[in-house]
Amino acid sequence: MTTLFGEANARGDLVSGDKHVHMAAAPEAEGPPRQLPLDVPGFTGRRDVLDRLDGLLRTTGPAPVIIALTGMPGIGKTALAVHWAHLVSDHFPDGQIFIDLRGYARRGPVSPREALSQALRTLRVPSSRLPVEEDELAALYRSRLAGKRALIVLDDAASAQQVSPLLPGTSSCVVVVTARRRLTALVARWGARAMALDLLSPAEARDLVGEVAGRERTRREPDATADLVRMCARLPL
């Protein structure tokens, strides 16, 4: 093939007279983000909540579906969010984003600006192109997600104020927020669906012990299994 600067061979290298210049291939575009943590092996229970979450995938409207999973520490909010996200990941071909907001970490929660910057880097925006102002970061974040089918998991939120700037503006996205406290402002202002997690049922707790200790063993030792369920207070810790 003849170009303005000489002949190009089959590999795209430029040949001009006795000079041969190797033209590096353009880097392949990176795929969409797949940031979900490892799913919990042998996840057990919460069938009713999983069914409710599945039902929300069929929700249509002008705004994104926002789900607030709340409950005490150790109740299994993150495990449930991650497990469900893996189950439905094929519904979100444009990516799954996971951000730990560190709502109750000793070093303090992640600021909205930090979280937005992290999300935008995940969406292939170079750090050198990130705006300084939080409002501009949020606008760019919404632009990047416009029309995309993406799942965003915001784990361990401290407040609705921390989460609000991270809400996309497109109805094709789904956001799952986990928090210890009920995020009433998120429900009132943005229409989030609140789901408060309770303790595992006795049957679910027994199933969980069986998953960990072995089902045959729990069948042989029902009294010891019941003791373990009581000791764990039906928390999936």
Automatic annotation (TrEMBL):
Gene3D superfamilies: P-loop containing nucleotide triphosphate hydrolases. This is AAA+ ATPase domain-containing protein. One of its GO terms (molecular function) is ADP binding. Pfam families: NB-ARC. PANTHER family: HTH-TYPE TRANSCRIPTIONAL REGULATOR RV0890C-RELATED, REGULATOR-RELATED. Residues 63-201 form the AAA+ ATPase domain. It comes from the Bacteria. SUPFAM superfamilies: P-loop containing nucleoside triphosphate hydrolases.
